[in-house]
Amino acid sequence: RSDGRLPNIHCLLVGEGPDKEMLAGLIKELGIEQHVSLCEFTKEPFYVFERCNVIALPSTGKEGLPNVLLEALAMEKPCVATNTYGMPEVVIDGKTGYVFPS
Questions:
Q1: Cα separation, 46 vs 74, whole angstroms
Q2: Nearest one of 8, 6, 3 to 53, comparing CA atoms
Q3: For a FRET experiment, which of 39, 70, 75, 83 has its CA 20 to 30 Å from that of 47?
């Protein structure tokens, strides 16, 4: 549950997938509707990126080199990503963002 310790945090989850309904339920169950929004996939990600301070891609799937990271970095947005596939090649840990173990 939200306890007010991070009142200025808002998480925007973008995309489609099999977990969307589960995530919507979890957001409601935890009472964090004011801090988390679900947004459908868009072919114009720059409108999403301009509203974000940090882009996170916690994917563990076989993404190869995700366009979302390239697009975010092109807008000079720091990225957080797993250390799998091509992600560490574009997210330079400590410089253009942070990489963590998957």
A1: 10
A2: 8
A3: 83
